[in-house]
Amino acid sequence: RKLARVDFDFRVLQRGWISSSEGSCLLCWSLFLKFLAEFEESRAPTMLLVLADEHKEHLGFLSSVDVEVVSEFCRIAMEFIRSGPNPKLYQSAAQKLAVASETVQHGVEGLMFLLTEAARYMISEIDFQDSIMTLGFSEDLRSLLLQLYLDNRAEIRTILSEMSMDLPHYHNLEWRLEVTVASRTLRNQVTPRLLMKLHTQDSGERDVQVLQTDPVNLMHLTTVLEGALAEMKSTHCRRIVRNIK
Prior knowledge:
By secondary structure, the protein is of the alpha+beta class. Helices cover 63% and strands 13% of the residues. It has helices at residues 2-15, 20-42, 53-60, 67-83, 87-97, 101-120, 125-133, 139-163, 215-232, 235-244, and strands at 169-180, 191-202, 205-213. The chain has a three-stranded antiparallel β-sheet with strand order 1-2-3. A hairpin with a 2-residue loop joins strand 2 (191-202) and strand 3 (205-213). Helix 7 crosses helix 8. It is elongated, with a radius of gyration of 25 Å. It starts with a helix and ends with a helix.
């Protein structure tokens, strides 16, 4: 939202809708808003995956095989996510590696859990590398898993969304800032209001809600929602959500 306001200010300045002195102030203010937006992005909290000891044990098997074998495990894990488990693939891979079929199954399930959890929380590239750093993987193996996650993150999120309950969700938002500068009873006043048209989608059907608020309440609402989102990324809340699921 801040970056959108910066772009709008530059368009106003270029079209000559304001004087040169006002334009200089607006330019400085726009650059300041852009700096604040970039500063907030740099202060974004880290999001690391918390793996249980059981999952770490299952993923630990990957360190004992070649990278080419892990690549095949990754392919099986993605097939697992798309179509469900296939015991025949476990048995075939177990025979080639001369290990138990349960070992291969646990390795694939560990990979599937790692990918789905990372895609669910949309963790960044750096956070994903930090999350698997404690597993003792080699650099080549970490690079392989990272590339697998980046290549399939969007598809995994789509599959997870199809598996979840279909509730009304965000589709689009239109907004307009209205300011009353004078009236018959009061000549000099500034009463800003923000008019929003929220588009939601539910089971393919779209709905529209028209909302109106003032900047103070909007800032308070934004602060509360940002706090709720930050709390959902905490270790405590993630453990609760994982147990509920």
